[in-house]
Amino acid sequence: MRTVDPEQHARRRAQILAAAAVEFAEHGVAGASTASICRRAGIGSGTLFHYFATKRELVRALFAADLPGNQEARDAAVADPDPTAGLRRLVSHLAADLADPLAPGLTAVLVLQVNEDPELAELVGGDDAATRATLTTLLSRLAVAGHRLAFPPERAAGWIQTLIDASYLSVGENGFDAAAQTAELHAIVDWVAGTTTVAPPGRPPGPVVRTHRQRCDGARQKEITR
């Protein structure tokens, strides 16, 4: 009986997911070619289908791969004795992929696929719920410590998540600057959390101030037209 090397199996799986991420980001799920994924990963089609039977399964695995890191970030944020530092740590983690060149394409893929794949929607929804609970815990600690939150902790947590989601939905816009967006995001979170008395900076009018609904529609259209 052939034995499987767990480390080699994990490396090959990660190699396939990395190749799929590029293919999906460039062409969307519908336009992605399994043959191209195999070429990018340096494997045969038989190997690909041994790991993932369908493109939908690949998409789920791609986004599920982020979940352990998200949990580690939540645990580290809660474990920090300073809730201000814990909150900043978690927000930094959640915003880290804004600078990833694959972010525009993968964001569009996620927006479309969560509406078509209930299993993916459940994965993403569970992760979002865990993040909101952690944000609520940190914000509650800040309130107890005497910080004046802009909204009750759970509502403030929801707004922070909405701001992060909106940031990802704007990554493909002309002139998007990940570093500037992250800095402004931290400034707004500081204001919402009551860790600063300075109002968040304003932005000049333009495409970046589109509504959250418009951003979602734009991301869906980008994926559909690939």
What is the average of the pLDDT values? 89
Q: What is the succession of H and E elements?
A: HHHHHHHHHHH
List how many beta strands DSSP finds: 0
The helix fraction, in percent, is over 70%
Overall morphology? elongated
* Count of separate DSSP helical elements: 11
Structural class: mainly alpha
Q: Measured on Cα atoms, how large is the radius of gyration?
A: 19 Å
Query: What percentage of the residues does DSSP assign to strands (E)?
Result: under 5%
Q: Major sheet, described briefly?
A: none
Describe the SSE topology.
Layout: H1 6-31, H2 34-41, H3 45-51, H4 55-64, H5 67-79, H6 83-95, H7 103-113, H8 118-144, H9 153-169, H10 178-193, H11 212-224
Helix pairs in contact: 1-2, 1-4, 1-7, 4-8, 5-6, 5-8, 6-8, 6-10, 7-11, 8-9, 9-10
Task: Briefly summarize what is shown.
The protein is mostly helical.
Overview of this protein structure:
This protein has 226 residues and is mainly alpha-helical. The protein is 71% helix and 0% strand. The protein is built from 11 helices and no strands. The chain has helices at residues 6-31, 34-41, 45-51, 55-64, 67-79, 83-95, 103-113, 118-144, 153-169, 178-193, 212-224.
